[in-house]
Amino acid sequence: MTRSVFLLAVLVAAAGLPSIAPAQDATEKALEVYRQMLRDDPWSNPGNLDVDRGEQLWKTPRGPKNVSLERCDLGKGPGKVEGAFAELPRYFADADRVMDVETRILWCMVSLQGFSHAELVAKPHPGGGQPVKELGAIATYVAHQSSGMKFAAPLAHPKEKEAAALGEALFVRRSGPFDFACATCHADQGRRIRLQPLPFLSQPAEARKVVGEWPGYRVSTSHVMTLQHRLYDCFWQMRMPQLELGSEASVALVSYLVRQAAGGDVAAPGLKR
Amino acid sequence: MRALTFALALAALAAAAAPAGAQQAPAADPAKVQAVVKAAFPKAPADWQARLEQDATMRECTAHGNNPPKAASEAIRKREAAAIEYPPDGKFLGDWQKGEALAQSGYGLRFTDTSTSRPNGGNCYACHKLTRTELSYGTIGPSLGNYGKIRDFGAEDAKAVYEKIYNSHAAFPCSLMPRFGANKILTIEQIKDLVALLMSPESPVNKE
After folding, report:
1. Residue A110's CB: how many other CB atoms inside 10 A?
2. Which residue among the candidates A72, A182, A185, A234 is catalytic per the annotation?
3. ipTM here
4. Which residues 85-114 of B are in CB contact (within 8 Å) with A?
5. Helix (H, G, I), strand (E, B), or coil: what is residue B90?
6. Model-level pTM?
7. Would you say residue B89 lies in a domain?
């Protein structure tokens, strides 16, 4: 905790510098200092609080049916969490569709524990300063159990192929009053919007660097943000409506991003600006 | 039969030669893409449904990766030029100070933008450098510093800037820049204020 206070202090100091371009460098440097500390002591990332919270939520009997998620099959057999995230999204025969980590946990919370689907997707993401929702904390725990492993989502099933192709089509699809596509902001090297650097997500080298950091602790909003929450925010910037958690489009975009990042390391929870 | 074998061999070759990281999955069916988009936003109110559809220009630009072949490019240019509405008073320059405020503001049309009194912004700084003093600018578009000065504050250029902001695709089919007038993001008066920001000699944009 002292370390996140330190980080905030560095960021605040950076924001107070006289001109903004050097301040951006200073912010980047502060993040780099922090990332180094994380390498030295991975437990200093505040996102780890949600890893612990997620683990408790996973193991505790909950919901109308009062069962834990330990019978939830993330693709490697019921209750097997280690390494599961690195192989998501994948096709699940029981649901007859491709699912990413958040969609699969949603499915298990509904079908095993008896939670209401409508309630879980009504307001699925936290506001600034609020902790990630329970589903997101569980996703953070599950992702962390693949940390250090390489992304290797399967692509054998026709529906897995279809999801990846759909994701690519959605990535370049222009829509909304601003005519934006994901590619408007994420298909070129070294661009930025205002001062925010825009990762070149259609380039595997860059995708490998950033996709594995989700779910990640986001310093600017001081909470863990999941990948579907990140996409929800990008659609907000695109002047599109609220992206439905677990929708086929959201899973397809995650499939596309993870395919771009194939071979990259899972490093969740990461640390984002 | 031989032709078929040959075609299959060619296809196999092409697949084998695809660069690493390239999509090997078959292209998605456009009808399926549209259905998936429709299903992705169940909370969208009735007056937002149009945002889920693409108009002809969006469709063609998407299909051609924003690099349309000549005929398609000409068709887009013609269609979008025809969609430009001009100021009734025939004047293109408004108030640059209002223009600067509009260039700074990214307000408008997001699902959290619910004010009925606050005007939409142009968010030009998201993508362009304009005045020398504003250092928080993006780089998706080119720098617009000294835009009017470089053009000797020409009247024809002021008209061209108006058209550019009103409908970016009329000059550059499949531009990444929004169609601010044609898509009803900004009003004619607001676009004139932005033209003044770029084209009036008093504007800080021209004092770099």
Report:
1. 18
2. A234
3. 0.91
4. 109-112
5. coil
6. 0.90
7. no
